[in-house]
Design goal:
This protein is an alpha+beta fold and 342 residues long. Helix content is 22%, strand content 29%. It has two domains: 108 residues, no CATH class; 147 residues, Mog1/PsbP, alpha/beta/alpha sandwich (Protein Transport Mog1p, Chain A).
């Protein structure tokens, strides 16, 4: 119903039935949107944008992690699988006078001995002067970081009929000899040729061993039972000890692995190098600013001979050829008290 604004008559049409005044219907106002509905829309929009952003981040991470050269943990760690193994060392090809080493690679590259073990061993063997026709087995140690030279190294030892005939710490990437060099007997390394170190001899008839040690070790004491000696520099910054014993005296004769495990547990330093042969093993490492090296022999009759030397880490390069000389001259045999001598 409409009420005429002039005559106040009620009407239903678009014109007043009394005075003919045209009517304009009132415009209906649109109801305002409730505030709750507006907030809900904003929230939904934010969730959609967040979901899209999360998906983009995940896609970016997948792309980065999928790259071959993405290595967030390769910062001066040993985070590669150890490569301790023993295998027959392959001789160099007869038609090849020299085995070429590949160029140094990045820390994330594969080690040469992992990709071509035969060529790697042949190249190291060649550098140590080991005859090509000498049948040897090769022992490859764990890859370790050498702080002094800022290099990764791995120790390789060549054994012939149970005796070590050569070895060195080399680059795992190109096989270049770097330190702890033990050349084939009769050869000498440049560092050995230049050194002015003189040596004294120590022999032990009771346990049948002998060794040459640096003559600058002058302060000594010798066991009353004739088992060995303890010799140092006057300031005791360098210490050398050598001993012998019969395992049977301690009840039972352990295996070589058991003996190694026992000495490693009691070493008193962090062991970073521990090769083992048929009747010998070596433990080497550091504690603070001191380097340690020890070698043990366990003979079939239960006789155990071993020596240890420690020296300042700052003199590492000086002692590399010294230890090489001591290892070469450390000889074991049948002593007067050895079970096999009775």
């Amino acid at each position: 119903m409409w009420i005429c604004p002039k005559c106040q008559t009620q009407n239903e049409g678009n014109f007043c039935s009394s005075c003919g005044t045209p009517f304009t219907p009132p415009v209906q106002e649109t109801a305002p949107v409730a505030p709750e509905k507006k907030n809900r829309g904003i929230l939904v929009a934010c969730l959609v944008v967040s979901a899209i952003g999360l998906i983009l981040i995940i896609l970016l991470l997948v792309l980065l992690l999928g790259k071959d050269d993405f290595n967030p943990t390769g910062l001066r760690t040993l985070g590669r699988p150890s490569a301790t193994a023993t295998a027959q060392a392959t001789e160099m090809p007869a038609n090849s006078a020299t085995t070429e080493a590949p160029a140094e690679q990045s820390a994330s590259s594969s080690y040469w001995f992992e990709t071509d073990r035969e060529a790697f061993l042949a190249y190291v063997k060649q550098q140590l002067g080991i005859p090509e026709d000498l049948s040897t087995t090769a022992e490859i140690g764990d890859v370790a970081y050498w702080e002094g030279a800022d290099q990764w190294i791995v120790h390789v030892t060549f054994v012939h009929n149970g005796e070590t005939v050569g070895g060195a710490s080399v680059s795992p990437y190109n096989g270049e000899v770097m330190r702890s060099i033990l050349p084939y007997p009769g050869l000498s390394t440049p560092s050995e040729q230049k050194t002015s170190t003189s040596y004294k001899s120590y022999e032990n008839g009771r346990y049948g061993y002998s060794i040459e040690y640096p003559s600058f070790l002058t302060e000594g004491s010798y066991g009353q039972n004739g088992a060995g000696a303890y010799i140092t520099t006057p300031d005791e910054t360098v210490k050398f000890s050598i001993n012998g014993d019969h395992m049977a005296e301690f009840g039972t004769t352990p295996s070589l692995s058991e003996l190694k495990r026992a000495y490693k547990n009691d070493a008193g330093f962090t062991v970073s190098y521990e090769p083992m042969g048929d009747n010998w093993f070596v433990l080497s490492g550091t504690s603070g600013n001191t380097e340690y090296y020890e070698k043990h022999f366990l003979k079939s009759d239960g006789t155990h001979n071993y020596f240890r030397i420690s020296y300042p880490k700052s003199r590492e390069k000086e002692f590399d050829p010294i230890i090489t000389h001591m290892v070469k001259t450390f000889k074991t045999g049948v002593g007067a008290d050895s079970p096999s001598a009775n």
